[in-house]
Amino acid sequence: MSLATIFADRQMVVGKIEPAIFGSFVEHLGRCVYTGIFEPTHPEADSDGFRTDTLELVKGLNVPIVRYPGGNFVSGYNWRDGIGPRENRPARLDLAWSTTETNQFGVDEFMKWCKKAGTDPMMAVNLGTGTPQEAGSLVEYCNYPGGSELSDLRKANGSELPYGIKTWCLGNEMDGPWQICGMSAEGYADKALAAAKMMHWVDPSIKLVACGSSGREMPTFPEWDRIVLDKLYEQADYISMHRYYWQDGSEEDFFASSHDMNEFIQTIKAVADYVRAKHRSSKIMSISFDEWNVWYQNKQGEAHWAQAPRILEDRYSLKDALVFSGMLNTLVNNCDRVKIACLAQLVNVIAPIFTEPGGAAIKQSIYYPFQLLSSHGNGVALSHITKCDTFSSRHGEVKILSSSIGYNEADKELSLYLVNYSASKVELSLELRGFGDLSATECLVLEGNLDDANTFERPDLVKPKEGEKPATKGEHAVAALSPLSYTVLRFKHE
Ligand code: AHR
Predict the structure, then answer these.
(1) Mapping DSSP to helix (H, G, I), strand (E, B) and coil, where does residue 65 land?
(2) Most buried by CB count within 10 Å: which residue of 166, 186, 193, 370?
(3) CA atoms of 344 and 419, how far apart (whole Å)
(4) What is the C-alpha to C-alpha distance for residues 63 and 49, in angstroms, rounded to an integer?
(5) Which residue's alpha carbon is nearest to atom 2 within ligand 1?
């Protein structure tokens, strides 16, 4: 057993936790759309062909915003292929994932689905094969009230009212050589600026996300971000970040992922603040961490131009959920800058929800840490000091505990999200100043064998169980954290 302490103070606020940091992502990739959220022949499909079993799980996850339609897919996508009568929509080769896209699901279906799922759209425009004009045209189709060719076409396609989509991504990972028509930072910045202007001319109220480096390991990082922000500082509201981790070394290295993710965020903040200083601007650039997850990129499967093939269908273990929970903590602990984050993705493709065509839908291990945070995350994050043992990793010396603290003043509720990466039990002493008398209301624990993963046969193998609530005395509490576990503690104050 080891000892640890966490000290927090009600006044030490990092920032408001924007609900949009609990966003997710639906890409036309594998079975995310087809047989994931949309499967007209499924016994539980509704009249629009949406799987209601998936919809229920999505609602339970509390996802306020969903990015669409890609991802790499968007860089070769013509949004016009996916509108109008279904029988006229073309089947096309998707060069991003070597699949055949039937276009039976497009912008209008996505907007209908968002309404049913109780979520807002975050629309990405094609800045690969697409043009700035087409980006502006998509804004016109979606957001212009009526009286122009494209807005009237939307009405003819069944949506009288404009969609009013607020958040738009200016392309996807345009620094990547894998990206359809990927380009240099200067080339992207020019194209994105032209697109941003046209999109804003159609609807000045929209918020724009500029493509940042698609990873910290990219040779163009962080110059890419500097050049892009330099050009787009006034037009863009967010710079995007993407990061995936998987175990390709020791367990310790994998457990240190969230530490590395934090370093990545600090560097992007520094680049953005440098550009801000250069521009003498009062605006602080927000971060949209619009792709993050555990992703075993060595196990992605072959598509062979099939329709909705089984690719990127990672099955998540308890170990993955522990790393995932650390990443969630890192996002919350940086909520003063990270204002949007999208768990990539939502269904089947590296996702918390897994479905069988014609069959059931289950929750993967990572579903639970996300839900436990998103369902109580509407407050502020508290900065805190953790004293505990450390372990060595390729990312340096890392604490065995990952933590974030959310405080909701209206509900008088304080929640601690704690990952114990050590194989020993930790006795945790909490000093939570400024809250008066605390009482523990909940303790939920995710633990078990590290390789345990939910399956259709055993869908509840990895699931939070009630643990022992910590003993409290005034502003102090003592909790026991199981080895290799995720624990959520909730307290109320007077
Ligand atoms: O989420 C899977 C893929 O990862 C996305 O299409 C791409 O943007 C990223 O490389």
Answers:
(1) strand
(2) 370
(3) 21
(4) 21
(5) 71
Supply the residue whose CA is at minimum distance from atom 9 of ligand 1: 71
Averaged pLDDT for residues 319-336 = 98
Q: Which CATH class is domain 18-376?
A: alpha beta
How many Å apart are CA 210 and CA 188, to the nearest integer? Answer: 10
Average pLDDT over residues 386-405: 97
Token representation of residue 387: 């004293």
Q: Are 209 and 285 in contact (CB under 8 A)?
A: no
| Ligand 1, atom nearest to 73 Cα | 6
Which of 74, 242, 294 to mutate for ligand 1's pocket (most ligand atoms within 8 Å of CB)?
242
Residue 377 pLDDT grade (very low, low, confident, very high; cuts 50, 70, 90): confident
Q: Please, are residues 169 and 190 in contact by the beta-carbon 8 Å criterion? A: no
Q: How many angstroms separate the CA atoms of 244 and 267, rounded? A: 17
Pocket-forming residues, ligand 1, beta carbon under 6 Å:
27, 70-72, 172-173, 291, 344-345
What is the model's pLDDT at position 378?
A: 85
Tokens read off for 256 = 């240190």
Give residue 106's pLDDT. Answer: 98
Render the burial of 451-466: b for 16+ CB within 10 Å, e for the rest: ebbbeeeeeeebebee
As given in the structure block, the two tokens for residue 422 are 């050590």
User: Helix H segments across 81-184?
Assistant: 107-117, 132-143, 149-156
For 139, counting Cβ atoms within 10 Å of its Cβ (0-12 exposed, 13-18 middle, 19+ buried), the class is buried
Question: What is the 125 CA–ligand 1 centroid distance (Å)?
Answer: 15
pTM score, whole prediction: 0.97
Q: Choose the catalytic residue: 39, 101, 140, 291.
A: 291
Every domain of the chain and the residues it spans: 2-11+381-493, 18-376
CA of 127 to the centre of ligand 1 (A): 15
Cα 98 from Cα 301, distance rounded (Å): 11
Which of 341, 331, 315 shows the shortest CA–CA distance to 406? 331
**Residue 292 β-bridge partners:** 243, 343
What's the CATH code, domain 2-11+381-493?
A: 2.60.40.1180
